[in-house]
Amino acid sequence: MDFTFKAIGMIRSCYTDKFGIPRQPGLVKSATATLELVPPFNQPEAFRGLEAFSHVWISFVFSQSISKGWKATVRPPRLGGNERVGVFASRSNFRPNPIGLSVVELLEVNGTELKLGGGDFLDGTPVLDIKPYIPYSDRIDDAAGAFAGHAPRPGNTVEFLPAVEAKFQSLETAARPRLRQLITDMLSYNPRPAYQQDDPERVYGTTVFDVEVRWKQVDNQVTVVEIV
Predict the structure, then answer these.
(1) The domain 9-147: what is its CATH number?
(2) Are 128 and 8 in contact (CB under 8 A)?
(3) 211 C-beta neighbours (distance < 10 Å), count
(4) Cross-strand pairs, 42
(5) What is the pLDDT of residues 111-132, one digit of tens each?
(6) Cα-Cα-Cα-Cα dihedral sign, residues 139, 142, 145, 148
(7) Residue-range domain boundaries for the chain
(8) What is the DSSP letter of 125?
(9) Nearby residues of 117 by Cβ (< 8 Å), 6 or more positions away
(10) What is the pTM of this model?
């Protein structure tokens, strides 16, 4: 059976590069995103009553993974990036139908837009559906999570070179809220591939909002060397 779905909205996210996005929602609480409904679904009435909920489920499309196809087995980062499990035993984006599901904080309802917190969305992500999070049915206290039974800890310490620290005063604006905190939170969870070895001279880079962030890492020490 084949089905065709229309995107009901689009995500505008602080994450403008895949490298650096947290591997699960809710880890980087300083991350922000806006979900904008698109025609013909952009009717404020569609959100009536949603403001009474604290969190929402977002069904979305892994749009940048479609051309890469699916894989029967994948290597979850939580297992070190070397051990394989079945794709249906993972949250991998390499799925037969590239659909993602994230629960995020609902910060504000504004017309046909939702302001979201703690998301793991790439900027430009198409949205298929929105559902309210229902605590009594969506939370299962005795559920087993296999290799992901508990939340990862932010294992990295993040520091900024003095020249980088000096730039935050001008870069933190309404368009880039809490930029320093966002970068700190993001890098504390070690976005590098789990199997990658330390190279003290290697400079990593990613973007948040319209800012390029460059850093070095040795063991669990991250040093942000430049922001552009």
Answers:
(1) 2.40.30.70
(2) yes
(3) 17
(4) none
(5) 999 999 999 999 999 999 999 9
(6) positive
(7) 9-147, 157-227
(8) -
(9) 29, 31, 32, 33, 104, 105, 106, 107
(10) 0.90
